[in-house]
Fold this sequence. Notes:
Chain A is an alpha/beta fold. Chain A has helices at about 5-10, 20-30, 50-55, 70-80, 100-110, 125-135, 155-160, 185-195, 255-265, 270-280, 285-310, 335-340, 380-395; strands spanning about 35, 95, 115-120, 135-140, 165-170, 200-205, 230-235, 245-250, 315, 325, 350, 355, 370-375.
Amino acid sequence: xxxxxxxxxxxxxxxxxxxxxxxxxxxxxxxxxxxxxxxxxxxxxxxxxxxxxxxxxxxxxxxxxxxxxxxxxxxxxxxxxxxxxxxxxxxxxxxxxxxxxxxxxxxxxxxxxxxxxxxxxxxxxxxxxxxxxxxxxxxxxxxxxxxxxxxxxxxxxxxxxxxxxxxxxxxxxxxxxxxxxxxxxxxxxxxxxxxxxxxxxxxxxxxxxxxxxxxxxxxxxxxxxxxxxxxxxxxxxxxxxxxxxxxxxxxxxxxxxxxxxxxxxxxxxxxxxxxxxxxxxxxxxxxxxxxxxxxxxxxxxxxxxxxxxxxxxxxxxxxxxxxxxxxxxxxxxxxxxxxxxxxxxxxxxxxxxxxxxxxxxxxxxxxxxxxxxxxxxxxxxxxxxxxxxxxxxxxxxx
Amino acid sequence: xxxxxxxxxxxxxxxxxxxxxxxxxxxxxxxxxxxxxxxxxxxxxxxxxxxxxxxxxxxxxxxxxxxxxxxxxxxxxxxxxxxxxxxxxxxxxxxxxxxxxxxxxxxxxxxxxxxxxxxxxxxxxxxxxxxxxxxxxxxxxxxxxxxxxxxxxxxxxxxxxxxxxxxxxxxxxxxxxxxxxxxxxxxxxxxxxxxxxxxxxxxxxxxxxxxxxxxxxxxxxxxxxxxxxxxxxxxxxxxxxxxxxxxxxxxxxxxxxxxxxxxxxxxxxxxxxxxxxxxxxxxxxxxxxxxxxxxxxxxxxxxxxxxxxxxxxxxxxxxxxxxxxxxxxxxxxxxxxxxxxxxxxxxxxxxxxxxxxxxxxxxxxxxxxxxxxxxxxxxxxxxxxxxxxxxxxxxxxx
Lengths: 398, 398
């Protein structure tokens, strides 16, 4: 008899964003520079206001904070949401350890083991990981590249609703699709929620990153959803502070928030010092985001043009967030991504991409796709796209 | 039809350590000072070496770190464990967001929903919360105050083993009991693990806090347990850095660690900056702990003597950690703790304790007990014990 893992311990998928890190480390050990298009780690400086608060913190003990987060931070968040038409009190906000924990808590409080969550696919790959942790099933509703990854029609959602369906989970602006849902699309989701008594969990961490004059609409601005709408949020992308692990959950459903507070108490509190920093980050002027947005729009154009130049490749022009799902003329995204790190370099450099199959729940989908994050400066990104094009050619000629 | 919480959303217990915070806030709002004996938040200064690293951090982007934690920190941890006779490599360590996440990951990787974990009770209350998150059952094996909360006899464990039992979870040195298990006791657990193919998850976050010349022994120094032993750890208590949310898990079981790495990838990484600080904290000289230990032993004596002076109260003298389970002459610990915050004060102050029922899984146990943390300076602690004694008297005379 030898000791066994749990079934979920086997089932938990490796993250397509991170599982190839050992191959990237191998490339770096050989002296090859790796352009990281695999992960949404922006190169934008974390705001000085955040660093200043952290570096001027005067307490001698790095102590536990409240389980629902520091009041001053939650007050700042409530003011921040008001700018987007979301009217909430600090009591309707619970600070979490990254957006990751916000998503996990939302799943735990709305679903029991075996329950189902409808998710337009492709979706943020780690939803699969959180679903395994929560022992729930992600039921995909496939969005199509040829439709610009817009919200699938209502009837496709209805078809998949069972008595185990408890929630719909969306990412808006969309990771990895770049889609920004219109108010009308969110109203369709609201109808589904109200007609079938489902929660809507909206992962809105990319709200600042919207291009070409499109408009982000929060799920919490759609009337009638006070009991149904949950925002999962994070400062990671907004303030280029991914390593802070500061996120939050927002809901007007008191019973739900009471439950999430108890989940939050079990883990005591989110990181204290980095919440202190986040309070500072909330004071950055609007001009910070204008500069950031102009920069990302340039990057978006470079990556979109770069993909368009690869024979046989295609993608939708992303309108939000900072990712694109690229269909490439390759047999297998996993093999290709690994090969790029293990066997290819151009001018001493290679590119790391995230194979897209892990962003789908339907087996077989996404096999010839990769997710690219456009989080590098324009010069690096131009170079990375040249390397990617050469890599695709060499991969198919190998 | 109105939207429902999940069953586990209902089941998740409020933390007995934190659920009375609104009453404490009420007392403070009335101008009453609250001595916090409810929570293990030490008043000892976080080491300068930790603050220095954080405040001198020169990166401009607060970026994601590796999912298993910064290599330099894991290297430092491996050296640290060697001092306790635990020989591990950095690859056998995964950094977690606090000891909380280490415990949750251990449960997820070893148990499926419905599985059982044997836990000597009383135990750290939040094990109940993590068990609800993981949809597993805590099966208590009752340790008795009159036996000094020593490990219950082997046959009591064997009686409770079913085909759903996957692990034994212990806290050593013990929160809330203050017990420090001997090598012989750990060998009994090892026999159980090997005979019944169970993991042993040892929460060893208090290893520095051992008094009266007793000796802490790590589960990982017991031969034969390479595949079975898992340490859940944290810097929170060791370096008085509870708000950092930096913990870690240790195991030599490669398959298990591979699985936990995938759980870790889903949530991306533990807090970056506070790991940087923790690298600094690992450099504190042994003398730091000697000073801390002398101080805690004084505190332990004050709290033990204080309880002994309350007519009808009793407790075991704790030998490790910084808690004590006190049996008080009261009808109900929850009611008493709330009453102390809502209706009692002496010289403008009151005391917050953690009602102990939440530290048991067997219904009815711990009802007339409270957990007290001795984490205040000796003067405050003397005062707090006077107030507690007066409070017990007034509560029973009300």
